[in-house]
Specification:
- By secondary structure, the protein is of the alpha/beta class.
- It folds into 2 domains: about 5-35, no CATH class; about 55-495, Amidase signature (AS) enzymes, CATH 3.90.1300.10.
- Helices cover about 35% and strands about 15% of the residues.
- It has 15 helices and 13 strands.
- It has helices spanning about 5-10, 20-35, 40, 115-120, 165-170, 190-195, 230-240, 260, 285-300, 320-335, 350-360, 370-380, 385-405, 450-455, 480-495; strands spanning about 65-70, 85, 125-130, 150, 155-160, 175-180, 195-200, 220-225, 275, 305-310, 410-415, 455-460, 470-475.
- Strand 4 and strand 5 form a beta hairpin.
- It is globular and about 80 Å long.
- It starts with a helix and ends with a helix.
């Protein structure tokens, strides 16, 4: 241990160390760290799992939905006979996990993520790992190192992101259910573009052990499916408390396990009251989507539901709030090479060591969006001491209060999920809504607020002809089961 290294480490923590201090600490720290080597023998990696991995066949994967193809045997349980695709930022033992980046090729977990273990225990048949934007940073799939995912509704258009392959797999019918992640809309964006149901539960409702974070305080694991019933069935299986994820302690307040059963008795239309947030139906919504949404509102009202305008004033500035939180947490995670400091373990040593090694040697291979966003986060941390992050976290609490106020007296809020239909490939910058340079209204404008507030949100296809348009329903935090019942009510009204 050199004194120079000690001086450098002290500088990062604003310690005023003299060279004599550094020499003194260097010897003592070196002696101590030598003893830590015994941890390598005390902490054993998990045993290797073996799965038969197949090359992805273009004929069987016309929309580039999958990065890795394999099949596990399904067993008995509530998901018996259900084919499930898993986003490639969730660990499946024995299957490579790339997170949509060439940097992490060759990283093979030896332990299933908690949600994957629950799927297997429930009898699901896993059919592959799905394509995604690199490290989940992008709303279109165009940042994936494995190529863009095309939309089953129109091959010239994007599937949306970052859970692009999960949405395309469900839409094309190669999976009955898919698992995705949602930090600012990454389940709901592709679900809306591809014409399937996408559910982002309350924050903490689904454990994230074995998941590669983008921004831990905003990350949610959710489900995508052809209908609300299958969506709820998937949530029943993957949701609930897990001691390895501190955030999942909140799940003790959420009724998980019987949401699908609850759909047999859903509210009648005349029992429902909806609020339409004016900020989510502003000028950023295209004329086409606005017309489709107004038809949906007219259908709800003609069926007996009550609809009125409400306000979420902070949404107008949510782009800066989301960016400050996400970029800082993302940069911090990259700097510590994914070291899960906030989690109690136990950990998959093989995956974490391999991922850290790959990042250290191959980090130059990250795409521009990943590098740009990480650099923004680093500047906010280093140049501005993270104060924008702290203020942004405070604004999240303000936004949560606004949701509670807007929901008062209403069963749910309702808004267009996306301001536009799926763009053509190459039409939009991956991190923006507009095609001009600068910080524009992002594609995720209508989806990010739910992540910032931690409230559940679900997008359901509006049922009209043409390119898919999603209708987003939002409820109060921990009201996940109620929200799914409302969404199922809308399905019945839509299909009547």
């Amino acid at each position: 241990m050199s004194a120079r290294w000690i001086l450098e480490a002290g500088t990062t923590m604003d310690f005023d160390l003299s060279e004599a201090d550094a020499e003194r600490f260097a010897q003592r720290i070196s002696d101590e760290i030598h003893g830590y080597e015994t941890l390598d023998t005390l902490s054993k990696p998990d045993a290797d799992e073996s799965l038969s991995i197949r090359d992805v066949d273009e004929h069987d994967d016309p929309h580039n939905a999958y990065i890795t193809s394999f099949t596990t045997e399904g067993g008995d349980g509530p998901l018996r006979g259900v084919d499930v695709a898993v986003k490639d930022n969730l660990a499946v033992a024995g299957v490579p996990m790339t997170c949509g980046s060439r940097v992490f090729e060759g990283v093979v977990p030896r332990r299933n993520a908690t949600v994957v273990a629950r799927l297997v225990d429930a009898g699901a048949r896993l059919v592959g790992k799905t394509n995604m934007d690199e490290l989940a940073y992008g709303p279109t799939s165009e940042t994936s190192a494995f190529g863009v995912v095309t939309n089953p509704a129109d091959d010239e258009r994007v599937a949306g992101g970052s859970s692009s392959g999960s949405a395309a797999a469900v839409a094309e019918g190669s999976a009955n259910l898919a698992i995705g992640s949602d930090t600012g809309g990454s389940v709901r964006i592709p679900a809306s573009f591809c014409g399937v149901v996408g559910f982002k539960p309350s924050w903490g409702a689904v454990p994230r052990d074995g998941f590669v974070d983008l921004a831990p305080t905003l990350d949610h694991i959710g489900t995508l499916a052809p209908d609300v019933e299958t969506t709820a069935l998937g949530f029943d299986v993957i949701g609930g408390y897990d001691a390895r994820d501190p955030s999942s302690a909140l799940a003790r307040d959420i009724p998980v396990g019987s949401c699908a059963d609850g759909l047999t008795d859903v509210p009648d239309p005349e029992e429902l009251s909806f609020g339409v947030p004016a900020e989510l139906l502003s000028t950023h919504v295209s004329d086409h989507v606005r017309e489709r949404f107004e038809e949906t509102i007219a259908t709800l009202e003609s069926s007996g539901a009550t609809v009125e305008s409400v306000r979420l004033p902070t949404v107008d500035d949510a782009v800066f709030v989301w960016n400050a939180v996400t970029n800082v947490e993302f940069a911090a995670a990259l700097r510590r090479t994914g070291l899960p400091l906030e989690r109690p373990g136990p950990f998959d040593l093989s995956r974490l060591d391999a991922a850290a090694g790959r990042q250290a040697t191959g980090g130059v291979g990250f795409g521009d969006i990943v590098r740009e966003r990480a650099l923004v986060g680093a500047v906010l941390l280093d140049r501005y001491d993270g104060r924008h992050y702290i203020r942004a976290r405070n604004v999240c609490s303000t936004l949560a209060d606004e949701f509670a106020d807007a929901l008062y007296g209403h069963d749910a809020l309702v808004a267009p999920t996306m301001p536009v239909v799926a763009p053509k490939i190459g039409e939009r910058k991956p991190h923006s809504y507009d095609s001009d340079d600068g910080l524009d209204v992002p594609l995720a404008y209508n989806t990010r607020p739910a992540n910032l507030a931690g409230v559940p949100a679900v997008t359901v296809p509006d049922g009209s002809d043409g390119l898919p348009v999603g209708v987003q329903f939002l409820a109060g935090r921990y009201e996940d089961a109620h929200l799914l019942r409302v969404a199922r009510s809308f399905e019945k009204i839509r299909d009547a």
